[in-house]
Amino acid sequence: MPMSKVEDYLIIKGARQNNLKNIELLIPHNKLTVITGISGSGKSSLAFDTIYAEAQWRFIECMSSYARVFIEKLPRPDVDLIDNLRPSIALEQRNPVKGSRATVGTHTEIYDYLRIIFSKIAIPICPECKREIKAWSPSKIVQELLQNYSGKRAFIMFESEESTEKLIKLGFSRVFIYENTHAVVKELSEFHEKLKMIIVDRLRISDVSRLNDSVEIAFKMGNVKVYIVEDNILLNFPSEAICPQCGIKAPEASPLLFSFNHPQGACAECKGFGYILKYDESFIIPDRELSLAEGAIEIWERPSLKWWKQQLIRGAKLSGINVNIPYRALPEAHKNLIFTGNQYFYGVNDFLEELERKRYKVHIRVFLSRIRKPSLCPVCKGKRLKEEALMFKINGLDIGDLNFMSVTELKKWIQLLKLSPEQARVAEEPLKQISEKLDFLERVGLKYLTLDRQIKTLSGGEYQRLNISNQLSNKLTATLYILDEPTVGLHPRDTDRIIKVMKELTDYGNTVIVVEHDRDVIKQADWIIELGPGGGSSGGKVIYSGKMKNFLKMNTPTANYLKENDAYLISQFSRFYKEFITLKNARGHNLKGITVHFPLNALTVVTGVSGSGKSSLVVDTFYKAVANQLGLDNEEPLSFDGIEGIKNIKTIKLIDQSPIGKTPKSMPVTYLGLYSKIRDIFASQREARARGLSSGAFSVNSSEGQCPTCKGEGFTRVQMYFFEDLFLPCEDCEGKRFKKEVLEIKYKDKNIHEVLSMSFDEAYEFFCDEFALREKINIVRELGLGYLRLGQPATTLSGGEAQRIKICEEIINSITSRKSNLKGFIYILDEPTVGLHYEDIKKFLHIVKRLIDKSATVIIIEHNLQVIADAHWIIDLGPEGGDEGGYLLYEGNLHDFLKVKNSYTAKYLREHLKS
């Protein structure tokens, strides 16, 4: 042990969770520790499944049994001892938010502070005449009188419609009449009009105590009126905020009035979402080149809905609608009639109303959701709030306007904010909190996010950095933070900021453990732990634990990566391209009307700082535009003028990080199409044929072979009601998922359960006699996924692993046939190096090269300098994120890109390639 106190270290002994090999570790407190290693080496098993799981288990065990009902409980990890464990907070890449209500503003509490500010100092403005609407309180009335009419004589009065008898009984005796600038005082008993101005007191505006009492009495009785004798003017001080010209009443301001998640503030039309779901013509009529007779209304082509089409055809002919010309060629009046219907036929709207009446059926609800798309709320225009809430403004802007602002824009608005001394005093603390949170968001590279951005639309990396900024603002101490690749999705420029933020957390007296591959983060770490040497069963060992200066002397994959010249180039020479796809004047989101060229049969890398418009260009514009023209997708792309060069394109595929399956029964071996071959192998065994077992018997999804007790799940669920439900291994199959007679069938002394439990590395050796199957398994290994089990539940795969499995599927489907040609195939990958070690990236680039060699076109959105250095063609966007981004800084080859001066990417790439 180093020469320090025992309590200065987190002590771990005998950790065996997942593939960890009974390891022992010391991790220093109040330091930045990086856990690194190749994919599958056990990094997450150590950081999250061991350290964090134990911290959570201890925390939950301290609670009452009632409280435990509402908290997700992690299973206790397989470890002998963890000592000196601090309260822990884990910030993972995964974005768990699925709902549409949570926004950047609400998640960071910035919007909550804005609600407080607006409830205190915002001024209601009449939406009709744009005049300020005031509501007076007794203290405000007294303050107004003392400030402007001090020392003058005045009548303090109130308006009333009460009966004369009642007012006299209350002690009032005189009434004030003001007509044509003439003031008259009469006895109340002599005045018989219904609306009266009752005199409370006559005084000089200098006696503060008497003035306060008189105004209080008048305010309780009705609207306060004050007549200034010397000036011969009558002042009106209404207790309610009502526009004197339009009669529009402003509600009482409260924080709930400005909440779009509460009925008091939410827009009644969109329920606080900012958009409404409308039926979209492009979903109902996807191919406008078809005529009505040919089936333009696709939903009516189903056999069960043929009647709707037939009655339309009959009625359309009677209505003078041509059913044999393309739908796009029909006059607008006829198109409208097709939807509204008439006396001769039922229209599409009638059909949809009929379905709405059957929404209680699940399949109807699912179908309706597929033909709707969000449309901006026509009432609140996306601001989510009632008109009453939007009446309140500060410096001419309502809270919805501020919610549309980016972090940078809101920060600038606060700096230029002009408030009265009283307003400044009231808003000082909330504004201070907001400014601090905005600073933290800028520091973690999220200055381009707008407050109204839905949390569910953030990438895993953005969501994690948002949480890091929240933790900075909380200023906790003596806490253990566990971060999962916080640099994911970050440009190298922004990585420096994240490192400073993590260092700041340790300066507060916190321990920070980071699972990371980024070289800059590793170099800045106080303590390094490398696991390995391989992945899966070959990993789980500690190959180094110590300080940075000693780490560089080691012979480990990561240490060698830090020491060597990093350039791993397959595109060392400039290539010349004749064929391009040209996207013209792309201007969606923050794109500035750019025209971009994508060469065919090349690796194109689109890069730029976070928020510069990469996804807007590649996914939301280019992919959707090409997919639309090829008839592969009907989702509308962002705005652009045109696209050229796609006449020879056969298909385009977006390979993202979405899961490959939603249930534990979904497995990599199934997704890759390998399971059927494995089942055939088992079904061909002599014993299987003798028992009459087909290949279906070896599937966990078939009742022929699955365990009837657990239905192929491998476990049974025991409801514990007030405690967490227990998932116990099935007693009949002992967690093996199959019937006993199926498990008795063996191939090379292994049953189907044992084969599905193998890693792809083990399966590669096991199926040595099956050349075709072995070749496909090897593709998975080449992409660095050899450690995954064949039957591993898809729900346990990370986003990066799921994406690489999809890449494997494409390669298995196209490359295993050596005669296949991928000319006309476009593959789009969104940050495929997430979670990959340097060695794994080499393997990934080798696979990409195989695709290019088969004449495919590969377009990658990426920040990783190793991948950018490998590109044949580079498209760089910037120079900043948000509104300051969206410009095309460069497109061309690597050699010329290194000469670009105004590009952050070029700057960091030059440093990366220095020998």
Q: Gyration radius, to the nearest Å?
A: 35 Å
- Can you tell me the CATH class of the largest domain? Alpha Beta
Shape: globular
Number of helices: 34
Q: Give the tally of structural domains.
A: 6
* CATH-defined architecture of the largest domain: 3-Layer(aba) Sandwich
Spatial strand order of the main sheet: 5-16-17-3-18-19
Summed over residues and divided by their number, the pLDDT gives a mean of: 88
Largest sheet: 6 strands, mixed
**Cα end-to-end separation:** 38 Å
Relative strand content: 15-25%
Find the CATH superfamily of the largest domain. Answer: P-loop containing nucleotide triphosphate hydrolases
Domain ABC transporter: 431-487
Protein name: UvrABC system protein A
InterPro entries: ABC_transporter-like_ATP-bd, ABC_transporter-like_CS, P-loop_NTPase, UvrA, UvrA_DNA-bd, UvrA_inter
Domain UvrA DNA-binding: 280-343
Could you characterize the architecture of this molecule?
It is built from 34 helices and 30 strands. The chain starts with 8 loop residues before the first strand and ends with a helix. It is globular and about 115 Å long. The protein has 6 domains: 6-95 and 460-563, P-loop containing nucleotide triphosphate hydrolases (Rossmann fold); 101-131 and 251-274 and 377-457, Up-down Bundle (ABC transporter ATPase like fold), CATH 1.20.1580; 138-237, Ribosomal protein L1/L10, rRNA-binding domain (Ribulose 1,5 Bisphosphate Carboxylase/Oxygenase, 2-Layer Sandwich); 275-375, Orthogonal Bundle (Helicase, Ruva Protein, domain 3); 580-650 and 842-913, P-loop containing nucleotide triphosphate hydrolases (Rossmann fold); 668-798, ABC transporter ATPase  like domain (ABC transporter ATPase like fold, Up-down Bundle), CATH 1.20.1580.10. The chain has a 6-stranded mixed beta sheet with strand order 5-16-17-3-18-19, with helices on both faces. Strands 9-8-10-7-11-12 form a 6-stranded antiparallel beta sheet. The protein has 915 residues and is α/β, with parallel strands linked by helices. The protein is 35% helix and 17% strand. Keywords: ATP-binding, Cytoplasm, DNA damage, DNA excision, DNA repair, DNA-binding, Excision nuclease, Metal-binding, Nucleotide-binding, Repeat, Zinc, Zinc-finger. InterPro entries: ABC_transporter-like_ATP-bd (IPR003439), ABC_transporter-like_CS (IPR017871), P-loop_NTPase (IPR027417), UvrA (IPR004602), UvrA_DNA-bd (IPR041552), UvrA_inter (IPR041102). Its main location: cytoplasm. This is UvrABC system protein A.
